[in-house]
Amino acid sequence: VVLLGGPGRAWGAVALLLFGALAALTYASIAWSVQPATSWLEANRTLSYLAAFGIALALARLAPGRWRALIGAVAVAAAVISGYALLVKVFPGTFDPNQPLARLQAPFGYWNATGLMAAMGIPACLWAGARREHAPVLRALSAPAIAILVPALLLAYSRGALLAAVIACGCWFALVPLRLRAALILAVGTAGGAAVAAWGLATHSISADHVALPARTSAGHAFGLVMLVVLVLTAAAGFAAAFATDRLALPSQLRRRLGTVLVGLVALIPVGGVVALAASSRGLTGEVSHVWSTLTSPNGLVNDQPGRLVNLSNSRPTYWSAGMTIAEQHLLAGVGALGFETVYRRYSPVSQPVNAHSYVIETFADFGLVGVLLSAALLVAWVLAARRALSPRWPRWRPLSFRGPPDGASDEWIGLVTAFAVVLTFGVHSLVDWTWFIPGTAVAALVCAGWLAGRGPLSAPVGRSAQRRSLSRSPGAIIALASITAITVLAAWVIVQPLRSSDASGSAIAALTRGDSGAALTDARGAAASDPVSVDPLFLLSDIYTGRGDGAAARAELVKAVRLQPANPETWYRLGSYDLSANHPRTALGELRHALLLAPASPDAKAKVAAAAGAVSSPAPKK
C-alpha cells in the first residue's frame, strides 16, 4: 500500500487500529494472566488474525476489482473441506480408524467448526449459482456444492452452525435481488444434500458412537455410493436449472412479485412457529417460558446423537454462568488471555479445562470491561467501515429496499453482501461457541471482514497508483516502510519463542532417553529461557534434577513454577506431589489442599490430599 497504493482516504483504518489495540491488550494480559504461557500463544494467534484482516483490507484497496476471487475462494474452500469431512465417513479405515465418535469433526478436530465451515460456504454458493455473468457450467456446479455442504452441516450435529446458516441465508435473500435464481439453486442443492444426510442419519454405523471399524467401513462405502449418485443427479438438475433460467425470461414486474412472495413465505415461518406454540398444551406464554427455561438451565444435558439437532437442552449456561462469576471477580482487566479455562476449574464439577463457548463471555472473563469495550468499539468501527461499501447510496442506508441493488455497482454490491453474510455466519456462531479460536474458520471470515472494511464506497475505488512512489522524494514512505519492517521482525521473534522453547524441550527429552542428562539439562534451561512464562520447562528441569539426585534443585524449580503461576492448580499439585514423595507430608498437605482449592473436581488432587492427610495422621515410626 505504501509503494503502490493510490491516493485516497484510509478506509477501515480505525477498525485496523482498534484490532491492533485488541492484539496489544492480549499481549499485555500476559503480565497479569493466571496462565501466562497460554496467554502468549493466544496473543500470537490474535496477531495472526490481525495480519489476515489487515492484508485483506490492503488488497481491497489495491485490487478492488478482484472481489470475485474472494467469494469464489470461500465457496471452494467450504466445499472442499466439507467434502473431505464426508470422505472420512466413506473411508474411515484410511482417514480416521480410531475415532469413536460419529459427529463429523475432520479436518479441524472439532465438529462445530466443521459445521460452521459448511454454513459459511452456503451464501457463497448462492452467489455463484445466481450470478447471470457466470457460465452455465459454473452456476450449475453450485447445486452439487450445496449438496456437499448440507450433509456436512447436518452430520456435524451442530445446532449453532445450523442457526447461523439460516440467519445468514435469510439476510442474503432479503438483500439480494436474485432471489428466484438463488432459490432454485438452493432448492436443488438442499434436496440432494438432505437425501445424503437422511441416509447417513438413518444408518446406525454412520450416526452412532463407538461402532466397530468393520461396520463403519461397510456402511461408509455404501454411504459413498449414495453420495456419488445423489451428486450426479444434483449436478444434472443444476445444469437443467442453469440452462432453464438462461432461456426463461420473466417480466421484471413478475420477478419482483415472485421475489416478494418468496420473502413473505420465509417471513411467515416464525409466524407459523408462534401459532404452533399457541396451539400447544402449555399455551403461548407457557411454551415460551418452557423453552426459555430449557435453554438457560445449567443442568441441561444433551448427547452426541442426531436427536441433538432438535434438542433445546445444552451445556452453555454452565459455562456462561461461570464466566460471569469470573468476570465479576476480575472486573476491570480479567484473568488474562485464555485464563478462563484455568479458573473455570474452580467452579466446574469436572476437572478438565474448557472454553466459555461465547466470544462475549470469554472476552469478559479474560479481559474484563476493558476487553469488552474495546471489542465493542472494534465492532462499531467495522460496521461503519463496511457500511460504506454495502450502502447503495452512501451515506444513506437503503439496502433493505427490494427495488434492486445500486445503479452501476450491482454485481460487486451483491458480492459484498455475500461477504457480509459469511461474516454474519461466523459472528452469530461465535456468540454461542468458541470456533473463533480455530484459524481454519476464523481466517475466512476475517478476510471477508477486512475486504469489506477496506473497500470504501463502491463509486470511488482507490486502486493502485499510476506510478510507483519514489522513496527518495517521500521521507514519510521511508519511515513507514522502516516501521513496518521493524514491527514484522519483532512480531516474528515474539511468535517463534514458544516454538523454540517447545523444540528445546523435545531435545531435552530426547537427550534423557539417550541417558545424557548433561545435554538434557542444557536444553531444558534453553527452553525455560525462550519461554520464561511457561512452567513446562520448569517441570522438565525438576525431573532432570531428580534423576541426577539433586533434590534441592528439583524442588527449587517447582517452587519457581508456583511463584510464576500461583493460580494454576497444576503447579501446586506438582510441588505437593514432590514433597509427599520426599516424605514431607505436612508440607505437602498444605500444597495439595491449595491445588484442590483451585480445582475441586480433580480426582488426582483428591487422592493426593487423602494420601498426605493419612501420612500426617499416622504415627511416626520408632527409631
Roughly what fraction of the amino acids lie in strands? under 5%
Distance between the termini: 81 Å
Number of helices: 25
Largest beta-sheet details: none
| Poorly predicted sequence stretches spanning 5 or more consecutive residues | 393-404
Mean pLDDT reading: 88
What is the total tally of β strands? 0
Helix fraction by DSSP (H/I, runs of at least 4): over 70%
Structural class: mainly alpha
Write structural notes for this entry.
- By secondary structure, the chain is an all-alpha fold.
- The chain contains 25 helices and no strands.
- It has helices spanning 13-28, 36-62, 67-90, 92-95, 111-130, 136-140, 142-155, 159-175, 179-202, 204-207, 213-247, 252-279, 283-296, 316-329, 340-343, 359-390, 410-430, 439-455, 475-514, 517-530, 536-547, 551-564, 569-581, 585-598, 603-617.
- α3 packs antiparallel against α11.
- It is globular, with a radius of gyration of 28 Å.
- It starts with 12 loop residues before the first helix and ends in a 6-residue tail after the last helix.
